[in-house]
Structure formats: structure tokens, C-alpha cells
Amino acid sequence: MFKSVVIFIGPPGVGKGTQASLLADAFSIPKFATGDLLREALKNNTPLGIEAKTYMDSGKLVPDQLVLDLIKGKIAKIPNGIGFILDGFPRTLHQAEGLDVILSSLCHNVGLAIEFSMDEEERIVRLTGRRLCPNCQRTYHILFAPPKKDSLCDYCSVELVQRADDNEDVIRKRSVIYWETTKPLLEYYRQKNILMKVDASSSIENVFSRIKQIFSELN
Length: 219
Ligand SMILES: [Zn+2]
Known about the structure:
- The chain is α/β, with parallel strands linked by helices.
- The protein is built from 8 helices and 7 strands; from the N terminus they run βαβαααβαβαββαβα.
- Helix 1 crosses helix 8, helix 2 crosses helix 3 and helix 4 packs parallel to helix 5.
- Zinc ion (ZN) binds next to loops.
């Protein structure tokens, strides 16, 4: 049984979400991604969800404290002695420090931070090749998972589209910001001696084996 909190760190396109799902299933532990928590709070119209909506509607970032409160609500329901995965949170040093305060108040602690590393050019190829069916939301990749017929959804025959976020200029600009905020975060966990780096450019199976290996060495 895995008892502590695991943090997944990495930019979009490195496959963190896929690995978080695999790991959560393999060890029967919960996983949380802040995007999912926000969507859930909005859908259920919780007080935090309503507050988050006011920021999102005015195009502002949801403040760290609100996200931390959302996570706190989830963690409070997890029995002590059971670990969980945070996928893509914290993103900044400030959030990491806030998270530690919450965790210690609930008798949890971060036991492992995994950095998903990938060559930047490879990550761009992965992201810019993604296509989406606007009708059924199925996803494709022009190199790795192409549709049967040129640029048409296999199921709906609708023309596939590219998300605005998957544009190369957008990715490169965000990457600069990502590294500015992530370097201090990585340093924070490195100093605590709990940072492990995983080569995310390998296959899903290989990356997962590596993560399981790290886990078995911890327990
Ligand atoms: Zn479709």
C-alpha cells in the first residue's frame, strides 16, 4: 500500500495524465488533477465552484488559495495511511509551500515528486500533431494515431480540428513561462531529496514500468 502523496510534474504533452490513471488503477489510490476538481466544483455549484467561476468568467486565473481549498476538501475525505496522486499540481513554488501546509494539517506528506522529462522538439511534434473531432471529441494524432481517411473522424466523417492551444507558437511561448515557474518547484523537491526524473519520451508501457520500479524501491 502506498502511503504518501505523489506529485507529477511536467508540461503538456508528456503523458502525465495517462500515467496518473495507470498508477492510480495499479495501486488503487485516488488521483486528482486541478482541472477536474475545478470542473466538478463548477458542475456541482459548490461555494468554491461559484467563487472560481467569477474569476474564470472575467478571464482571470483562479487564485492559488482557492485551488488549495478545493484540494483540501478532497484530501480531507481520504483516510490517513492512504496515498494519492496529484497530477499537474503544484505548478509553482508558492503552491507547493501552500500544499505542504495543508498536507501536514491533515497528516499527509509529499513522499515523491516525479518529473516527466522530454526533449522540447519531440514534445512540440506530439502536441502539434494532435487532432480532435469537434463532433464526438475523439482524439487523433497525425503521426501516432491517424484517422483511417485523411483528416476525417473515423466515426462521424467530420473534419478534424486542431485545438488553438496546440499551435506551435503558443506552445513555445507557454514553454518559456512553464520553465520559469517550474525550475524553483523542481529545486524545492530536489532539496527535500524526493525528486525523481522519468524519461517520458519512451513508450507508455516503458514509462509506466519505470514509475512502478521507483514505487517499489520506495516501499
Ligand atoms: Zn467524431
